[in-house]
Amino acid sequence: MKRRIAPPPLTDSVDVVADMDAVVTRILTGYDTITVVGASAHPAKPAHGVPAIMQRHGWRIIPVNLRGGQILGEQAYRRLAEVPGQVGLVDVFRPSEQTPDIARQAVAAGATALWLQLGIESAETRAIAEVAGLLYVENRCMAIERSRLGLDAPPSQLQLRSYPRGCGRC
Predict the structure, then answer these.
(1) CATH superfamily, domain at 30-160
(2) What pTM was estimated for this model as a whole?
(3) Binning pLDDT at 50, 70 and 90, where does residue 165 land?
């Protein structure tokens, strides 16, 4: 069973109007890896372009596509359950009617955040995410939000590690 990554904490309480921006900021500043369900190998599609933009700004992309293969220079997995290691943030490029099942798969994989891209909304998916305690965004483009907020990926856990004191490298 996969270990769940705890979502990054909110630093301030937020009201209803500011809540979605707070969640968007919390996700984009708290996760350095994005597992993209419905990622595409076709450069003309948003399911390729958006992850490519996020990758250029420092996020690691783990593509999930039924065809497998390589997308954006990364191994594409056929199912979310096949992704090795910990799944934290899941970004979805699939039709709204498919998202409840994807949400269930994300919960089973140990995800702590679920993002449905622009034009994708589902009350059932929202309910699944809320019951599971996932951070949740729908009907917003991750690349647009990244640009609007002027964000790059947070440092990875490997980058945060330091050498022991006295080693001459710190």
Answers:
(1) NAD(P)-binding Rossmann-like Domain (3.40.50.720)
(2) 0.83
(3) very low
